[in-house]
Amino acid sequence: MRAGRGGGWDRVPDEPDDPVPMAPTDPKKLREKLRRSGFAYLQRYSSSEAHFSELMEQKLRRWEAAGYVALGEARAADLVAELTSEFRDLGLLDDAGFAASRVASARRKGTSRLKIALGLRAKGVDGELARAAIEEDGTEEMVAALRFCRRRRIGPWRRGDRPDRDGINREIAMLARQGFATQLGRAVVLLSLEEAEEKLGVA
C-alpha cells in the first residue's frame, strides 16, 4: 500500500494487513487520525479513561508496526494523554458515568458486588469510584442473587422438586463462583418461588 496523494492518511486502516513504506511522521495529521479513530470507537462503545488510553496506544503501536509512523515511548504517551484529556473535557470520557452505567446493567443481570468491582478494576476504574457507584445503585445483594438464580433457573426457579443436599450445595457453589457469600447463597436457594418473587417485587 502506498501513501499516495495527501499522505494517504485517510486510507490507513486501523489494523494494516501488509507492511507499508516508512513515511515521515506528520504530527498534525497523526493527531487528527488518532482523534477520528478514538471518536469512532466512543460512538460505538462506552469506556473508562484508562481503557480508552490503552486502546489508543495499541492502535499507535499497530500503525508503527506496519511501518507507517515512527514513535518513541514518550511521544506515543503524549499523543494518547492529549487525546484523552480532550475527550474528557468534551464529556466523551466520564469514569463516574461509565461506572454507574456498568453497575446498573450488571445489577439487572444479577451480578454480585465483588464481580462488578473486579470488572470495573479490569477496565481501569478507580476503586473508590467503583465502590461509590455500587453504593449509589443501592441494589441489595439478595436481590442480585435472586436475579442470577432466575436467569440460571436454579434455587426458587429450578425445574422439578427440590434437590438433595448435594444438589443444593451445587447451586450454592454456582452463586459462590459469581462472588456471592455462601451464607447468602444458601438462604437464596432455599426460598420458595412465592418468597423469592415477593422479595423481587414480582406481582
Overview of the molecule:
There is one protein chain. Helices cover 64% and strands 0% of the residues. It is mainly alpha-helical and 203 residues long. The protein folds into 3 domains: 5-89, no CATH class; 94-139, Arc Repressor Mutant, subunit A, CATH 1.10.10; 140-203. Helix 1 (27-44) packs across helix 3 (73-89) and helix 4 (95-109) crosses helix 6. Mean pLDDT is 87; it is low at 1-12 and 16-24.
- For this structure, the quaternary state is single chain
Q: Main beta sheet: strand number and arrangement? A: none
Tell me what portion of residues adopts beta-strand conformation. Answer: under 5%
Number of domains: 3
User: What is the mean predicted local confidence, pLDDT?
Assistant: 87
Task: Give a count of the beta strands, DSSP E runs of length 2 or more.
Answer: 0
What is the chain-wise order of helices and strands? Answer: HHHHHHHHHH
- The helix count comes to 10
Shape: elongated
- Head-to-tail CA distance between termini: 63 Å
Unreliable stretches: 1-12, 16-24
Instruction: Please compute the radius of gyration using only Cα atoms.
Output: 24 Å
Given helix and strand content, the structural type is mainly alpha
Instruction: Estimate the helix proportion, in percent.
Output: 55-70%
Question: In summary, what is this structure?
Answer:
The chain has 203 residues and is an all-alpha fold. It has ten helices and no strands.
